[in-house]
Amino acid sequence: RRKMLKTFDEVLNKAKDYGPKKIAVASAGAEDVLKAVEAARKEGLADSILVGDKKEIIQIANKRGIDPTNYEIIDLPDKTEATRCAVELVRNKKASILMKGMIGTARLLKAILDKEIGLRTDRILSHVYTLQIKGYDRLLTMTDGGMSINPDLKQKSQIIQNAIYYAHSMGIEKPKVAVVAALELVNPDMPATIDAACLAKMSERGQIVGGIVDGPLGFDNAISKEAAKHKG
């Protein structure tokens, strides 16, 4: 049985158990990017392949006191070429993690979704982000942060399923999923509330597995017992 991870420190310690992974960084020429990969290297979490303008990467690394010889650097100054190269490294299993450097999200997604060199699977691509909030007794994960602009019911169910699988990897055996809407009751004039109710029923019937889905719920009563009691 996996231990539920409740803080980022616990997540980092657990990650170390798996040994260092290889990160492919798309367009790595930025101080914040290099500081992040250097911190990961020092913690024993990951080694990185830096793709981008080699001269710029070395210059920034030296400025920040980072030894560039600790990294494989692939010299591709063009951001599109650098992005495609980083994606291909993951596709060809030369790296296991793709990291966004100094590029726009649209450019990164275009490479990820490319039919020839991309990372497409039979599941929808969705985004999850995890927060550690002071005073809250566990990590809070939200999805989708903007990757799926206007998902339909089928896509929403796939987004939830992706998030449940992610929660399992964080040690949550039966994650509770709140489908958030502006109201807690189904309103025929608000399609989001209808979808939320359908998703909850799909979970009950085994069309979404591995978690407990409920909705529609407001964000406040989804995360706060006090708010839920106040609203009845």
Q: Runs with pLDDT <50, length 5+?
A: none
In CATH, the topology of the largest domain is named Rossmann fold
Fraction of residues in H or I helices? 40-55%
Strand order of the largest sheet: 3-2-1-4
Number of strands: 8
Oligomeric state of this protein: single chain
Beta-strand content estimate:
15-25%
Count of discrete domains: 2
Shape: globular
The appropriate CATH architecture of the largest domain is 3-Layer(aba) Sandwich
Most strands sheet? 4 strands, parallel
Distance between the termini: 35 Å
Estimated radius of gyration? 20 Å
**Class by SSE composition:** alpha/beta
Number of helices: 9
Q: What number is the mean pLDDT?
A: 93
SSE topology string:
HEHEHEHEHEEHEHEHH
How would you characterize the overall build of this protein?
The chain has a four-stranded parallel sheet, sandwiched between helices. The radius of gyration is 20 Å and the shape is globular. By secondary structure, the protein is α/β, with parallel strands linked by helices. The chain contains nine helices and eight strands. The chain folds into two domains: 18-113, Rossmann fold, CATH 3.40.50; 129-231, Rossmann fold, CATH 3.40.50.10750. The protein has helices at 8-16, 31-42, 54-63, 79-91, 105-112, 153-169, 191-204, 219-223, 225-231, and strands at residues 21-26, 46-52, 72-75, 97-100, 128-131, 140-143, 176-180, 212-217. Helix 7 (191-204) links the parallel strand 7 (176-180) and strand 8. Helix 4 crosses helix 5 (105-112).
